[in-house]
Design a protein that fits this description.
- By secondary structure, this protein is α/β, with parallel strands linked by helices.
- The protein has a single domain, classed as Rossmann fold, CATH 3.40.50.720.
- Helix content is 46%, strand content 15%.
- It is built from 8 helices and 7 strands, in the order E-H-E-H-E-H-E-H-E-H-E-H-H-H-E.
- Helix 4 links the parallel strand 4 and strand 5.
- The longest helix has 28 residues.
- It is globular.
- The chain starts with 7 loop residues before the first strand and ends in a 7-residue tail after the last strand.
Length: 253
């Protein structure tokens, strides 16, 4: 396990779910963590948990779809810890339930998903990568999804956004491949987070999802966090431009 003492990670959407688990994983390896979230209280709670375990963390409110907010977030991370080595673009939303057909999706809701999931990823990289370069290089991990590989019939905005994240990731990886910044994406399957709570409220849907997942269980945020932090670590020093699903075998089925 790579020791990340002296390194600094910035995690968006760090106030809950996969983001919180990722922040805790970074801290457990010795990195200082700037926890960013639209929900400041959630980010502060993550930072509190890190501090209680003996780590270093700070929290900041961010709207990843707003460039000024993202720029300020990166500046706060550098001001707090003196450098930036890793960025995890985890913040994301969905606009509609999984069974909502395209013709019933509101355009503004569709655009909001793209603003957060795609523009937010772009803006995070735009403002964080220059600081990562100043620190001598590092890594970026963007959160895609299995729906960025295999679309579903409902909620076209989410699937569209996650396909776009994969394209952004590959473009950035090629741009910075010789400059010391590696860029990868991960594709979580069905993970127990606040975003998926509605799914688990429906017993029939829950049973179906378990049945079509080869491992017959759902993932936990900590399982995705370990993959994310591995991709940021020196153990992944020859890995860039890739997409790595963690889906219990979903895409293999």
């Amino acid at each position: 396990m790579t020791d990340m003492t002296g390194k600094v990670a910035l995690v968006t959407g760090g106030g809950s779910g996969i983001g919180r688990a990722t922040a805790l994983e970074f801290a457990g390896r010795g990195a200082a963590v700037m926890v960013a979230d639209f929900n400041l209280e959630g980010a502060q709670e993550t930072a509190r948990q890190i501090g209680a375990a003996g780590g270093r963390a700070a929290a900041v409110k961010v709207d990843v779809a707003d460039e000024g907010s993202v720029k300020a977030m990166v500046a706060e991370a550098v001001a707090a810890f003196g450098r930036l080595d890793y960025l995890v673009n985890n913040a994301g939303i969905s606009a509609a339930g999984p069974n909502v057909p395209l013709h019933e999706v509101d355009l503004k809701a569709f655009e909001r998903v793209l603003d957060v999931n795609v523009a937010g990823t772009f803006l995070g990289m735009k403002h964080a990568i220059p600081e990562i370069l100043k620190a001598g290089g590092g890594a970026v991990v963007n959160l895609a999804s299995t729906m960025g590989e295999r679309a579903s019939a409902g909620d076209p905005s989410y699937s569209t956004s996650k396909h776009a994240v994969r394209g952004l990731t590959q473009s950035a990886a090629l741009t910075y491949a010789t400059l010391g910044v590696r860029v990868n994406s991960v594709g979580p399957g069905v993970i127990r987070t606040g975003m998926t709570e509605a799914i688990f409220e429906d017993e029939q849907t829950t049973a179906w999802l378990k049945g079509v997942t080869p491992m017959h269980r759902f993932g936990e945020p900590s399982e995705i966090a370990k993959l994310i932090v591995f991709l940021c670590s020196d153990d992944a020093s020859y890995i860039t431009g890739g997409y790595y699903p963690a889906d219990g075998g979903w895409l293999a089925g």
